[in-house]
Design goal:
33% of the residues lie in helices and 25% in strands. It has 12 helices and 23 strands. The strands form 5 sheets. It has a 7-stranded mixed β-sheet with strand order 1-2-7-8-9-10-11, with helices on one face. A hairpin with a 2-residue loop joins strand 19 and strand 20. The relative contact order is 0.10. Bound molecules: MU-OXO-diiron. MU-OXO-diiron binds next to helix 2. The site of MU-OXO-diiron (FEO) has 8 residues, from helix 2.
Length: 392
């Protein structure tokens, strides 16, 4: 199998994975994913950027079958889907130098069982000359691990960005075709793993703002020929200001909580607030995460199981706390049969959300007129809070 040319002397040696449906045993991959590796060939030296997920190592092996010498292996990120093939590459090319960021060195040694003596660290901003091709290493931490860096090919203005700007999508083509579609995939990816590090990513975006970039070649998903749209999208997703929208993870057992969600949704829509309800009995948590990227308010809507929130909704609560979206307000609505500590349990489960709690609405059994009126009042409050933030 021949490496695939992206531009002269820069080749793709990665693998799409059309069949993968779950990442980290958590993240749905409705469109599969890809593990991208790249060869950069200078006049004098050749570098391999990243070393693929172990399950697809045979693809990298096939691409490199007729590549007798590689001088450098650049590890932008230690996670296994980027580094799993490193031991094989080191065996295949005994003289190769493995380069990583300083924080990555002990991590690569720990995660892959490598001898740390085989790893040479590169400094932020350091250059590597290949002969007519110059690689510059740019530390871009927390996208989404602490050690991550990007590699910039100066002559051709290619940013090998690792996880950030990536998307979980498998396709045979190497380039983005259909910017809107790929932005949705990229947003899903950002939401699922990078949202907690929004503030650091703002700084990383500032760091590359004056970099001339002709191509962004991420480690997952297709390559951007026009990087402006994805960079602008990242600016918006990481921006401190939310949108005029509410996310409601919910389930219902006997219909009571479902009626309450319907009423609150209708009331909010009447007041000009967008609502994203997710029935957690069937929802794609990737869609939930995407909606949380922009939402100003998080409403947890759950019936009570024994004394606590329904576990399927509680799962969404735990996830939201882990993802740390920019939501400003939160509350709990729902129902119970005979007793409940749902409100206390949900509040205690979201310490990472820096939110103002709004009034809760909890019905005993079927909601009655007073409960519906309380939901309308809650919609008034949410709409007013959003207006105060200048959201419309
Ligand atoms: Fe693509 Fe952080 O792994």
């Amino acid at each position: 199998m021949k490496p695939r040319e992206i531009i002269p002397d820069v080749q793709y040696v990665g693998a799409p994975d059309f069949d993968r449906r779950l990442f980290d045993s958590l993240i749905p991959l409705p469109d599969g994913t890809s593990y991208n590796s790249y060869l950069v060939r200078g006049r004098d030296k050749t570098a391999l950027i990243e070393a693929i997920e172990p399950s697809k190592l045979y693809v990298l092996e096939a691409y490199l079958k007729d590549v007798p010498k590689i001088d450098y292996l650049i590890s932008n990120h230690t996670e296994q889907d980027h580094s799993g093939g490193i031991p094989w590459v080191l065996d295949r090319y005994p003289g190769i130098e493995l380069l990583s960021s300083e924080p990555a060195k002990p991590m690569l040694a720990d995660h892959l069982g490598l001898d740390a003596g085989r790893i040479r660290t590169v400094a932020d901003g350091e250059r590597l000359e290949l002969g007519g091709k110059t690689l510059r290493f740019i530390y871009t931490p927390w996208v989404h691990w602490p050690e991550t860096m990007s590699t910039y090919l100066e002559e051709d203005k290619v940013l090998f960005s690792c996880d950030w700007f990536g998307s979980h999508i498998a396709q045979t083509g190497l380039f983005v075709d259909g910017a809107d579609c790929i932005l949705a995939e990229a947003k899903r990816y950002y939401a699922e793993i990078m949202m907690p590090f929004r503030k650091v990513i703002q700084k990383n975006l500032d760091k590359i703002k004056d970099l001339e970039i002709a191509l962004i070649a991420p480690s997952h998903g297709p390559i951007y020929r026009d990087p402006r749209s994805i960079i602008q999208a990242y600016r918006e997703w990481t921006d401190d200001k939310p949108l005029n929208s509410v996310v409601i993870p919910w389930v219902t057992m006997h219909g009571s909580t479902g009626l309450m969600v319907e009423r609150l949704t209708a009331s909010l829509v009447e007041r000009g607030v967008a609502v994203h309800p997710f029935n957690m009995a069937s929802a794609d948590i990737g869609q939930l995460a995407m909606a949380l990227v922009d939402a100003a308010t998080f409403v947890v809507a759950a019936p009570t199981v024994h004394v606590g929130p329904h576990p399927m909704v509680f799962n969404a609560v735990v996830l939201a706390n882990a993802l740390r979206p920019k939501v400003r307000f939160a509350t709990i609505i729902g129902s119970y049969g005979w007793a409940g500590k749902m409100v206390d349990m949900v509040k205690a489960a979201i310490p990472s959300l820096k939110v103002e709690f709004l009034p809760t609405v909890i019905a005993k059994g079927l909601p009655r007129q007073a409960d519906f009126e309380a939901l309308d009042a809650l919609a008034d409050t949410i709409a007013a809070k959003h207006k105060d933030l200048g959201l419309s």
